[in-house]
Specification:
By secondary structure, the chain is of the alpha/beta class. The protein has a single domain (8-148), classed as Transcription Regulator spoIIAA (2-Layer Sandwich). The protein has helices at 66-78, 96-111, 123-132, 144-148; strands spanning 8-10, 13-15, 35-36, 42-49, 52-61, 83-94, 115-119, 140-141. The chain has a six-stranded mixed sheet. It has a two-stranded antiparallel sheet with strand order 1-2. Helix 1 (66-78) packs parallel to helix 2 (96-111).
Length: 151
């Protein structure tokens, strides 16, 4: 996939250009990236770059939105993705439900020798990771670029 290819995810629905909402759950083909946004509290972009799936999250990841994030990660895991970089640079808030999604994906990746790296943790989101101890469970990088090139 080209690193610039994106689509949009919306709470279980996919938008492609000006297509109307669909009622069936979205599907995540291995060759495409996706965007989730419905004007709600969370927006997710995904793309493949250097054999990693980069997941950029904006807004607020709370108990209502975390299942969408989880479904996106699960879809890529089901297709064999084993390296994720989660970009939190534009995330304002994360709840324990969001942390649980990340931990569940990490557990699945451990079985398949994969990894999750975190990038651009700021402010209250960084504090949540530090207070919860999640900052010791995952490699954390200042930028997505640094996470893509850890050496």
């Amino acid at each position: 996939m080209d690193s610039g290819t994106l689509s949009r995810h919306t709470r279980g629905r996919v938008h492609r250009d000006r297509m109307p909402f669909r009622d069936e759950p979205f599907k995540v083909p291995g060759s495409r990236g996706f965007r989730l946004h419905d004007g709600g509290p969370m927006e997710i972009d995904t793309r493949r770059e250097k054999e990693a799936v980069v997941v950029s999250v904006r807004g607020r990841m709370d108990a209502l939105c975390a299942p969408d994030f989880d479904r996106i990660l699960e879809s890529f895991l089901a297709q064999g993705a084993n390296r994720f970089i989660i970009d939190f640079g534009a995330l304002e808030y994360i709840s324990s439900a969001g942390l649980q999604c990340i931990l569940a994906a990490a557990r699945q990746l451990e079985e398949g020798k994969g990894e999750i790296s975190l990038a651009d943790l700021k402010g209250p989101v960084r504090e949540v990771f530090e207070i919860s101890g999640f900052d010791t469970l995952f490699p954390i990088y200042d930028t997505v670029e640094a996470a893509l090139n850890p050496d």
